Amino acid sequence: MSSNITIAISKGRIFKDALPLLAALDIYPVEAPETTRKLILETNRPDVKIIIVRTTDVPTYVEYGAADIGIAGKDVLLEYSVNASGGNGLGGYGLYEPLDLKIAQCKMVVAEPEKVEPGETGNREHGGRKRVATKYVNIARNYFASQGKQVEIIKLYGSMELAPVLGLADQIVDLVDTGNTLKANGLVVVETITDISSRLIVNKAAMKMKNNLIKPMIEKLTELVEEK
Length: 228
Ligand code: PRT
Ligand code: MG
Prior knowledge:
By secondary structure, the protein is an alpha/beta fold. The chain has two domains: 132 residues, D-Maltodextrin-Binding Protein, domain 2 (3-Layer(aba) Sandwich); 90 residues, Periplasmic binding protein-like II (D-Maltodextrin-Binding Protein, domain 2), CATH 3.40.190.10. The chain has eight helices and eleven strands. Strands 2-3-1-4-11-5 form a six-stranded mixed β-sheet. The protein has a five-stranded mixed β-sheet with strand order 8-7-9-6-10.
């Protein structure tokens, strides 16, 4: 039975929202990711360390056991599950997702420019297909296929809101929280794909081998989330 736990978290909004949950588990990082360049954060507990990785890398670290547990947005997990080892594109993949932590909540939406030029149909068709810019290529492809819509998907790595403004795409698939970013770029939501929140994920082997440590954590977090 092993006695150490490594937790993978991304810095930014998930780390911030995760701090109260970690505190409830009596886990307090000794340093904050904003004030140190270290990627492995010691905590008050000698048996627990936190590793700081990119949001999109969290499931990879956990699936391969470099971290035992992690916290990742459902957006990242949906996108990851399609390509993951053992992934079948249907959500089955090499890690457990036992709990919705209900933090870092937002929506995955389809958005497009609000103002349509007179005489235009509202979109520039490209050989009959709309162009959709997104970093969530798999989620977008599955969504439009489920709607029976043929679209051309353009992969971007950020600032999706810019694409329709400059005519690179007709629509975007992106996350929206307050809606301020869309509004500031003259875009409006036309469809909601799904609600998003962050999930606890657990390595499959660790769930067995470190059950003595992980099970009480899941139980405590479940209580906490249900109280919300
Ligand atoms: O930003 P960076 O490139 O450093 O990394 P990241 O985008 O991977 O991390 P971060 O911290 O921005 O987001 C981590 C996770 O937070 C995401 O994977 C989501 O699960 C969750 N989350 C919740 C969000 C938002 N809300 C959100 N609003 N992630 C991103 N956004 C962005 C959105 O893409 C858009 O650009 O914020 C903008 C819209 O916000 P509003 O409030 O203007 O609507
Ligand atoms: Mg971001």
